[in-house]
Amino acid sequence: MLRQRLARLELTDIFVYLLGAAILALVIVGSILTLSQGKYSPRAWFDLVLFGVTLGSIYALIALGYTLVYGILRMINFAHSEIFMSGPYIAYFFADALGKTGFANQNPVLTLLLIFFVAMLTSLLLAILLERVAYRPLRGAPRLVPLITAIGASFFLQYTFFRLFGPNLKVYPEFDALAASVTFSEFKITYLQIFVIVVAAVLMLALHQFVQRTRTGKAMRAVAVDRETAALMGINVDRIIVTTFALGGLLAGAAGVLYVLVFNQVSAFMGFVPGIKAFTAAVLGGIGNIPGAMVGGLFLGVVESLGPTLFLDGLGIPAPYQLKDAIAFTMLVLVLIFRPAGILGEVLTEKKA
Amino acid sequence: MTQKATLLTTLKLGALGGLMAVFIALVGMVEAFTARGIITGVIDMGRTLILISFFFTGYLGVRQFHGASSRSVQAIVYGALAGLICAAFLLALAILQSALPSSRNIFVNATPELSNALSFGQSFSVGLPLLLVLGAVVGALPGIVQFLPLSIRRGLLNGLAWVILVGLLQELITVTFRSIPGLRELSNFMFAQSGLSILGAVILFAIVFGVEWFRVARGNMVRERYARLDPARRRVLNLGGLALLVLILLIAPAILGVFVGSVLVQVGLYTLMGFGLNIVVGFAGLLDLGYVAFFAIGAYTTAMLTSTSKEVAFAGGFPFWVGLPVAIVVCLFAGFLLGVPVLKVRGDYLAIVTLGFGEIIRLLALSDFLKPYLAGSRGFELIPKPFVGPFELKDPQQLFYLILAGCLIVGYISVRLKNSRQGRAWMAVREDEDVAQSMGINLVATKLLAFGMGAAFAGIGGAINASYLAIIYPHSMNLLVSINVLALIIIGGMGSIPGVIVGALALVGLPELLRELGDFRLLIYGAVLVIMMLMRPEGLMPEARRAMELEEFREKDAPAIEASVS
């Protein structure tokens, strides 16, 4: 079998393997150097990992939106990053008003519930609108067309929000309740971080149960496997597709609020980079695969957080945090080359639609 | 359809139009455009936008009547109704704005100036009813227009379009004409302070109307004579036309001044890059969203070879003509390098991966890590202009000739490639990789060649751009550039070479010329991309094969708009 494999090897494959080996070597050497230099305390590493898990949970929530839509329509919903942004953006106006009157700090639970509600509702509505206007008419089109539409919609939404609501900074009110922290020995965890991780975990679990246990979930899985047969089985495919977009929107809206709680401000362009990273996470875990999106998100978050310091600092690269995004993109490229099926795997990349 | 159903549909269409109009207002376009006059003292672009919305809404209202019944009083009435509803939405907006001034905190463009624009500068009691009346009247126009013969219809619509266009470009035209003795008086006569003068507008309208009327009424005669010409004569005529075009292009920069020169340079650069991406996306069907990476590599290579900056470790100080070929070769290899890992990656993923590449290159250029070589965020300075013999190509007008030469060469290569064996191989790969492979096409070589050539063309663009700007910043090598190039190919028509030029003129030239439009550029891009994909996915000037592919998928009644407003 090895001989067969070797016979089919081409020059380009060798080149690619060399490239992969080089990157792996870089990573290992870098890590060893950094750790041997001992510049960072266990506390610093812990903080980085914790931040990675927090951010990763948010990526996971967004990634679920990408993976759900891809599983059903075999299409990357480029505009999902704007769905992610729109929720907290609209919710900002409520949050700001409540924050100014001091209501927010007196009743944090109620305020947060309201913000989540508004954000998730906005994202849900936007997702449904998008599907109806931009994607449904293009159901049978050659692959390029919906992709371009998605890109166009993404830009349109970004600049719509930018123009409608103005370029000035929109800062979310601080929640004192979340700023407090828990400490044991030298490690500190803030309530905010716990909040983000727990909320994300709960939502992901809820989604998983929904898809696995309910009739609609079963219908979604059926449509993802074979749309035509599902229609023959009496499933209303259009309604299922709308439901999928709606679920993705809901999760994205929640993710948006969590993201804003961590970073404190909303802008019309804040969705772009997290969107790409979330898609990377979805691919990492295995596109179309729900637990995969979760695993991928956490993995990406941690690697992105640890990566610059762990891999690059030891090699003497100044200001490695600038290359944080580059590490995320490089991971995407590596995954797509070497394991397109992702960690938990589903081979959808090489197949024809 | 029953009366009630029609009424309901009309109400919905009117509401749709109204929402669009409110959107345009809240996004700030109405207010920003009031600064641009079309006919001085009579109307400006902002108000024209409002009227266009009414017309469009009326058109939607009329369109629900198919065929012969669209030529009826009923259609006119429903069109008017739709326009009226649209106007009502704007009226509501104006009233709400003045009643709730704090809405400005949320919708930043809900200002008193906006309400002023909406009520046509009059007080509310006069302006708002005026708005409604205009809504109804302009909304009725599409219905009325149906009754007119084609020649008059074309004449009217084209006449209006030209008046608007020329009025918008008033500044540009007056500045240009000022330097030419004979035309100066003409421009003083035709134009006033902001836009056309009233007399000028009337005259322009009359001229265009006459031309169009002639084209439709008598145009068939000319067309027939052309068709009856034998091929040799026809080719002479075509070549003659092309030569005339090239002649105009050669003279144009010298006459038109610095501003237009710089706009032409931008259009030319994007056309060059468009040709390159056209090979990757249009011919070979490989969706590349990271095209700016090659642009950046070309620019930085040129910078490293030609600059005399002391800030970086390596700045060759060689002349431009050494930098350019090296940049092309480097980009060619970069194209291969970036293409190898993604050979097996499919459609949608390819887009994201290439986007990732583009971002990686930008981040590396921006980083402190490579600052000693690439000058980081401060920018790579002191890149010299090219010399042709003893002449330095200093001004945009002079550099334009270089770009024109580049475009012609690259365009020629594209045309020849398209009709060659390689071109057909690319198109086969675009259709279906597996079948192409089983027909004996070497996928690896084909794809790599596509990437490489596209990269090389982008490299030319990057090199010239670096020289033109004299300093290059990593901030300007971002995703937006890739999206710009992609958009202009898509809208011009994928795989179509004249389409690239059309796309560049529309998407790069127009926003540069009309500053107000430029502010809203990306908003309009996004909307146009979506609308084009929904209505005309093959682009404005598509290649024949593509048009056929997408024809069977297209909606059947979508092109009605183009038919009456072409």
Short description:
With 353 residues, chain A is mainly α.
Describe this structure in words.
The complex is a heterodimer of chains A (353) and B (566). By secondary structure, chain A is mainly alpha-helical. Chain A has helices spanning 2-7, 11-37, 42-73, 80-100, 103-106, 108-135, 144-165, 176-179, 191-213, 215-225, 227-232, 237-263, 272-285, 290-312, 324-338; strands at residues 170-171, 181-184, 187-190, 265-266. A two-stranded antiparallel ribbon of chain A has the order 1-4. A two-stranded antiparallel ribbon of chain A has the order 2-3. The model of chain A is unreliable at 347-353 (pLDDT under 50). Chain B is mainly α and 566 residues long. Chain B is built from 25 helices and 6 strands. In chain B, the strands form 3 sheets. A two-stranded antiparallel ribbon of chain B has the order 1-2. A two-stranded antiparallel ribbon of chain B has the order 3-4. In chain B, a hairpin with a 2-residue loop joins strand 5 and strand 6. In chain B, helix 11 packs across helix 19 (443-469). The longest helix of chain B is centred in the middle third of the chain and has 53 residues, at 231-283. In chain B, 48% of the residues are buried. The model of chain B is unreliable at 555-566 (pLDDT under 50). At the A-B interface, helix 2, helix 7, helix 13 and helix 15 of A face helix 1, helix 14, helix 20 and helix 23 of B.
